Amino acid sequence: MGLAHSQNKVVRWIEYRLPVFAFLDHQLIDYPTPRNLNYWWNMGSLAGIMLMVQIVTGITLAMHYTPHADLAFGSVEHIMRDVNWGWMLRYLHANGGSMFFAVVYIHLFRGLYYGSYKAPREILWWMGVLILLVMMATAFTGYVLPWGQMSFWAATVITNLFTAIPWIGEDLTIWLWGGYSVDQPLLNRFFSLHYLMPFVLVGIVFVHLWALHTHGSNNPLGVDIKRPQDKIPFHPYYTVKDLFGMGVMFFILALFTFFLPNYLGEVINYIPANPLQTPPHIVPEWYFLPFYAILRAVPDKLGGVIAMALAILVLFVLPWLDTSKVRSAKFRPIYKQFFWLFMADCVVLGWVGANPAEGHFILIGRLATIYYFAHFIILMPLIGWFEKPRPLPEHIGEPVLKRGAGGEGSS
Amino acid sequence: MAETASAGGGATPPEGEGRRDFLIIAGATMGLAAVIGVAWPLVETMQPSADVLALSSTEVDLSPIEVGQSITVKWRGKPVFVRRRTEEEIAAAQNVSLDDLSDPQSDADRAQNPEWLILVGICTHLGCIPLGQKASDPVGDFGGWFCPCHGSHYDTSGRIRKGPAPNNLEVPEYEFLDEMTIRIG
Fold it and tell me: For A236, which residue in chain B has the nearest alpha carbon?
């Protein structure tokens, strides 16, 4: 293997001047990877592929879209009705956003379960959290662009969050709007930012990969790779595995794009923006629902905004909140159970976020919010101290080899 | 591909190499088909959209135009010159020897009805709009149109007579719907 050692004259001519093939060999082809990665490790590549899908469909959509308060809604309908394949592009882009968040959330929970944020991968984790934050900003600015009722009122509600900041909040919000309400200046700058941020994401993804390739992937056992036979080259073993995952992902994306294109959206966004009438029930897209629930759980304007911000920022200090030396939840009997409880809590928060803030939803939302933070700030340090982990294997081949030899299989 | 396909079945070389070749070729073919399948709609989106195509023809009412007068109408975003020519202009256009023309074309080939000359008003050199529509405009040495950008002279049939333009002014597709109405495009 190895492109860099090819005898092809063109390859050698380029390689001597710019060692691009050696770089590919190192990072993509011979790149040593733990041999026991499961399908949850597909999600990183899949997220990268979704970013590319979003950029390609987005650039094409931008060729037909008009960022003007009077024309934006019409230009989206123009894309849907008049532009060749415009409907497909728009549905791919809208549902592609959901697909992107879905694989990124699975990727994140994968990291939580297998302790991928622990030393020496803290900066890798930080870059991941940063990617999530920029993704959220990108998704939000993009959601505003069709300038329907949901777009408009989502923009209004979210930008009004900044008014909660003491002293400077009002002025900051006016600056953000470029006026005294959500209107043309905001739409225009959101379009500009929505176009910019995906490329910022590409940059952060590059640093994310740089950090990843410094110490290599974590693995389902969370044990460091100590022997050469624990590693296999990335190509063809994981390129093929990722390609299979890509096929599954594109199947799901196609299912939504062609058969359920508006299932994840809000019908009310097909009504043009009306600054004089708020829709009866405002809900964000599904991927923001848990955070929306946290925002509404706190009965104080500033407090709600802070809680929502902390819900993500707490992930930055996670490597130090988790006091356990063991990475994988496979060997952490107590943490494993709390992991699933935490996941259930996130689902509950999402369910509360999708419903009106009334009646028992208020109480459930508050309890779920308290549990969300308790998981990180109280439970993670305590479990790390008191839990007695199961014995770790010597190397990542051990559990399999033992089972192969007829011993008691544990997995 | 046929050979590798058949090799994939029974009599495989050692270690299933034929089978592997078949899988690689079949996989790469499907991958290529997928890439083309995705690239095609992406390229197609940049073709004129349905609303642009809907504007691809324009009807013009000729009745307000006096003899010797010209109007400019917009068709597919381009200026179209509609001139009701005088007897002298028609005679000048018809009495030119084809040998004197750099892009030889008879006036009869350019005007369905000699009285009406319909032209795309774009200089065939580099796309400027020639002058000559208004009475006060310079009309060039041949009494038709004069392009101010690089000095091309067109005659009363819109044919190039002098200057850098390579071709005559284009005659768009048009038809007379009745005596005094044309549809361009």
Answer: B24
